[in-house]
Amino acid sequence: MNAPAIPARPVNFGLLGPLLVADARGTAIRIPQPKQRIILAALLLRANVTVSANQLADAVWEDRPPPNALTVIRTYVARLRRTLGQVSTRLVSRPTGYAIEVREPGEFDLTELDRFHAESREAAEARQWDRVARSSGEALKLWRGDPLEDIPSNTLHRSTAERLDEMWLEFATARFDADLNLGREHYVVAELRQLASEHPLREHIQAQLMLAYYRCGRQAEALEVYRKVRASLVEELGIEPGLELRELHQRILTADRTLSLPGS
């Protein structure tokens, strides 16, 4: 009797942390050579799009490519194909360069990130807070560490790190917005305090923390958050807090009853 076949699943690629490659059986493929990791990351960052050998050389050597850079890139790509084994069918040669093919939904974490981003924004516009919490929470789970954590290329880090850091922050604030609108302030106040300490000039995050404190019966701490963020804004940027913070501060001072209601 033949053993039952193991059902195939999508190949898995990931850049939200150390480089991740897994075959259709879920077996992780280790890529020990740094330059091979750079090439694969450069291709993944433009998945399904042709990347020229010159662009790969820029990622590998930045502004100091050797005279035979294009020949060396061909060698590195050939070695990467051998390292990838069965997954090498996704690394295709084209007349003007190379590409990594991502074929199925869910195969690549950055593609999933874009999907969750669209879902979260659509749900927020419809004030469907359960959906916002779910989609933004699932997006945050995709991070396994710092993006491109083991990719030694300043070129790639410069082109992606800021965007991905901003997306992480957007998902985090969206999830907290959802939690506050669902009346979950007691469960998130500690996380919010940590995020607010890491981003002292992000006014919306400070407002989230103020509201969470107030609803938890900690009015004095909510007002202290405002005092600190105002002092930082004035000292570092020479500006007063924006309308959101000023209005929330006034409503807390007057114990506005509607602040105790989720979504108010």
CATH topology of the domain at 12-100: Arc Repressor Mutant, subunit A
Task: Tell me the name of the CATH class of the domain at 12-100.
Answer: Mainly Alpha
Sheet with the most strands, sense and barrel status: 2 strands, antiparallel
The CATH homology group name of the domain at 12-100: Winged helix-like DNA-binding domain superfamily/Winged helix DNA-binding domain
- The share of residues in extended strands comes to 5-15%
Global Rg: 24 Å
Order of helices and strands: EEHHHEEHHHHHHH
Compact summary:
The protein has helices at 34-44, 53-61, 69-84, 109-125, 129-141, 154-181, 185-198, 203-215, 219-237, 243-253, and strands at residues 12-14, 20-22, 91-94, 97-100.
Care to describe what's here?
Helices cover 57% and strands 5% of the residues. The protein is built from ten helices and four strands; from the N terminus they run E-E-H-H-H-E-E-H-H-H-H-H-H-H. The chain has helices at 34-44, 53-61, 69-84, 109-125, 129-141, 154-181, 185-198, 203-215, 219-237, 243-253, and strands at 12-14, 20-22, 91-94, 97-100. A hairpin with a 2-residue loop joins strand 3 (91-94) and strand 4. Helix 4 (109-125) runs antiparallel to helix 5 (129-141), helix 6 (154-181) packs parallel to helix 8 (203-215) and helix 9 (219-237) packs antiparallel against helix 10. The radius of gyration is 24 Å and the shape is elongated. It starts with 11 loop residues before the first strand and ends in an 11-residue tail after the last helix.
